[in-house]
Specification:
Helices cover 38% and strands 16% of the residues. It has twelve helices and 13 strands. A seven-stranded parallel sheet has the order 3-2-1-4-5-6-11, sandwiched between helices.
Length: 331
């Protein structure tokens, strides 16, 4: 197949490109490079059948050109992070919602065979039940989560109305090599690995007993390919590891001292995907254990040499908008 990966120079997108190339598919990686890196292509960028196109999903004309002759579309492009989404809601809406609309319309006009969308488990907000199934109510706590859910609604609506074969994958706490090293304060792995390199304390939110469904990136890439190879359509499915792990356990595996910082409003104490649906419909299941995933991250720890090194004071400043807008009335 000939595949287009929006956000192909990013963390998950580059792993997906690599997997597709290894399976003999042709790949066009489409990325505006706002957070992607050419270095993410280093292990496969010269492979036959791989091509990079710099472009923005908000530019429907450029996107239509890149999608010409494409069989599969994997839509991973989008703006992430909580605090910037609170501060720049228009930017998040134009990228995550209008951009997704453009991808769908270009896919429809080019009669693509499959589209797989990267949704976010953050759209569940603070769930009532764990593990959380796909029929749990969506309770987005901030604009990033809301715009990712709005994108999913568009994808499923286009699948229903226009018969565009499409699947939405709700990703839970993806980690692994090539995860972003710069930008706004964000993912715990990048924060901790940069702190480990500089021998500074790990800034643990709350008491560290909160758990996350940490899912290794190669498992996630495999879920995208499995969805594309299936004939399932108009479905949203969780992609998780099959377990959940405390932040304290992560610190134990990495090894180092801890500095505790205030618990943040709007964050669940647990994320844990019910993966019954994807196992049943696609036969997919994660296979990389948490311990093995952390080991692989530690082997690549020097990749975080240019990452910002956060401490309690700088985190307080970076997350001020978080507390300002989400602090009142949260439980």
């Amino acid at each position: 197949m000939k595949a287009l990966v929006t956000g192909g120079a990013g963390f998950i997108g580059s792993h997906l490109c690599e997997l597709l190339i290894s399976r003999g598919h042709e790949v066009v990686a489409y990325d505006n490079m706002s957070s992607g890196r050419m270095a993410n292509f280093s292990s496969f960028g010269n492979a036959p059948g791989f091509r990079f196109v710099e472009g923005d999903i908000r530019d429907s004309d450029d996107l239509a050109l890149a999608m010409n002759g494409i069989d599969w579309v994997f839509h991973l492009a989008g703006k992430a992070d909580i605090v910037p989404s609170i501060e720049q809601p228009a930017e998040y809406f134009s990228t995550n919602v209008t951009g997704t609309f453009n991808v769908l319309e270009c896919a429809r006009q080019n009669q693509v065979k499959r589209i797989v969308y990267a949704a976010s488990s953050s759209s569940y907000g603070i769930p009532d039940n764990y593990p959380t199934s796909e029929d749990a109510p969506m309770r987005a706590q901030y604009p990033y989560a809301l715009t990712k859910y709005m994108g999913e609604e568009l994808v499923l609506h286009w699948a229903k109305v226009y018969k565009l074969p499409a699947v939405s994958l709700r990703l839970f706490n993806v980690y692994g090599p090539r995860s972003r090293t710069t930008g706004a304060y964000g993912a715990v792995f990048g924060v901790f690995l940069a702190q480990k390199l500089k021998n500074t304390p790990f800034t643990v939110v709350g008491d560290g007993t909160q758990t996350r469904d940490f899912t290794f990136v190669t498992d996630v890439a495999d879920a995208f390919l499995t969805a594309a190879e299936s004939d399932v359509s108009c479905e949203a499915m969780n992609v998780g590891s099959g377990n959940h792990y405390s932040v304290n356990r992560l610190v134990e595996l990495i090894g180092g001292h801890i500095e505790y910082i205030p618990k943040r409003p709007g964050e669940p104490d647990c994320t844990f995907a019910d993966t019954t649906k994807i196992q049943s419909m696609l036969g997919w299941k994660a296979c990389v254990s948490f311990e093995d995933g952390v080991r692989q991250m530690m082997e690549k720890i020097n990749d975080w040499g240019d990452a910002p090194v956060w401490d309690a004071k700088s985190i307080e400043g970076a997350t001020a908008a978080w507390f300002k807008y989400l602090g009142d009335g949260q439980k």
